[in-house]
Amino acid sequence: MRTHDNSPDADVDVAVIGAGPTGLTLAVDLVRRGVRVLLAERGTDLFAGSRGKGIQSRTLEVLDDLGLASRFLAAGGPYPPNLPWTAGTPGDEFRMIEEAEPTESEPYGGSLMLPQWRTARLLRERLTELGGEVAYGHELTGLEQDAEGVRLRFAGRAGSVRARYAVGTDGARGAVRRLLGIGMTGGTVDPKPMLVADVRLAEGALPRTHWHVFPGADGGFAALCPLAGTDDFQFVTAFPEGTAVETGPEAVRAAIAARTHLAPSRVTAVAWASAFTARAALADRFQDGRVFLAGDAAHVHSPAGGQGLNTSIQDAYNLGWKLGAVLAGAPEALLATYEEERRAVAAGMLDLSTRVHRGETRRGKETRQLGLHYRESSLSEHTRGADAPLRAGDRAPDGPFGDAPGERLFDVFRGPHWTYLAVGLGRTPDEVALPFPLTLPAHVRTHAIGPYAPYGRGLFLIRPDGYVAWTGSGEGLNPEGAVAWLERHLGAAAHAAPDGA
User: Fold this and answer.
1) Same structural domain, 399 and 473
2) How far apart are the first and last CA of the chain?
3) What is the DSSP annotation of 110-133?
4) How confident is the model at residue 9, as a pLDDT?
5) d(CA 198, CA 303)
6) What's the pLDDT at 360?
7) What's the DSSP call for residue 294?
8) pLDDT higher than threshold 90 for residue 305
């Protein structure tokens, strides 16, 4: 177990407030690094509704690194084609979401459907395996910070908890952002109020082979989507502006009957329901001293296009390795790159989800989030030519590795370590070699592969979150540049071996 340079009165290294998918992802990533975490949740259990149900390709790559991709794929399923209905008569099916086949460099082709409650439970399962837990019944009421840490107080609990750092993953209406006094800038995407509910239908009421859509003359469309891996459907409908939306079981049944050809009796159960108005808003800042915002606490999306949950999970993935590095001795300045990198991404994803909601763009390649990059980040150092296929700040592609069938670069990257990769630098086209005798820290693993077009010929220092930090050509440039990068940005942590795998 790594020894952290804790302040004398620190109870934990990091307090994470809110056990949704963002908080759970962050806790998983921190615990596997040997970080002492308090994951505080004000409720008595995890969130019970579907809400976000799309897992995008890049998020599946994150889950792959956390040891969870196979479980998610087994629990979920692909999005079905859409089937429009008019007066009880089906029309011609179509696809709202563009399909994408897996490729060598992008192994998770399309979107996976999985209700949010199951996403949370799979993450909790992984957290438990790693020795972590959720502290239920912890409602945050007070937060003060100083130069050494953060003190947190919880309703109905004597005393306080002292943490080196704290992260608010408690949603748009959560306590952390409010206690910090950080504003959120944005507005309404669509003034029509909406209802979302998880319902059970009588056998044969609708086939589970399609995502059923019911256009409404007053703009009050409805949709019933079979939730993969469950017996439920997600019901979504819009109401005219100004409507007071009720969420009780009978109100949900009445809404389904009014907007589809199904009688109320065909709805056999209503497991969960919520009313909302689609908004897009961005926190004015993601960091205040030793406290950070992630997920819905930092950005609120329209559900269209499935960007909110995915952007949130990737917030946690970006912040996790940086907190771990600073706790191990890296300069505190590294933490400022969290807002530098993620706030720009969140702003772009807010724009995308708004355009999808308004029908201005399709749910296509952009929504899969594989093209997101940090090229402009202060952490990205590109020393190859401008025409190189892979630049510092880009996502590191997957690909074949070694002689064993099915062995992949993602197998090499998986874990909290860094990777130093040489591509196509052998003396012959077929030779696989890491030709430079480098002195690298223990937590940087060195590997070499033959020529591979998505990378191009060169050297690559790959961050724990799967993005390229530094690139070198290996010709006429100092291959020790990777060592210099680590020394500059990680300091003492450059020589600290990470826990976990």
Assistant:
1) yes
2) 12
3) S-EE--HHHHHHHHHHHHHHTT--
4) 63
5) 15
6) 65
7) -
8) no
Q: Are residues 330 and 271 in the same domain?
A: no
* CB contact at 8 A, 300 and 235: no
φ and ψ at residue 366, rounded to 5 degrees: -60, -35
Residue range(s) defining the domain that contains residue 147: 12-76+114-188+280-368
- Classify residue 297 as exposed, middle or buried by CB count within 10 Å of its CB (0-12, 13-18, 19+): buried
Answer yes or no: is pLDDT of 322 > 90: yes
Residue 384 pLDDT? 86
336 by Cβ neighbours in 10 Å (0-12 / 13-18 / 19+) ranks as middle
- For residue 40, the one-letter residue type is A
Taken as a whole, the chain contains a residue count of 501
Q: What is the pLDDT of residue 210?
A: 97
**Of 307, 334, 368, which residue sits at a domain end?**
368
Band (431; pLDDT cuts 50, 70, 90): confident
- Same domain assignment for residues 23 and 135: yes
* Residue 175, helix vs strand vs coil: helix
For residue 276, give the nearest of 139, 173, 140, 168 by alpha carbon.
Answer: 173
Sheet holding 184-188, edge to edge: 184-188, 279-283, 299-300
Annotate 95-112 with b (16+ C-beta within 10 A) or e (fewer).
eebeebeeeebbbbbbbb
Whole-prediction pTM value? 0.94
Dist CA 235 CA 242 (whole Å): 20
Residue 1 lies in a domain: no
H/E element holding 59? helix 57-65
Q: How many CB atoms lie within 10 A of CB 365?
A: 12
Sheet containing strand 82-86, strands side by side: 89-90, 82-86, 211-214, 222-226, 233-238, 194-201, 267-276
For residue 421, the domain's CATH number is 3.40.30.120
Which 8-state DSSP code applies to residue 397?
Answer: P
Closest CA to 374 of 470, 231, 478: 470
Q: Do 40 and 377 meet the contact criterion of CB atoms below 8 Å apart?
A: no
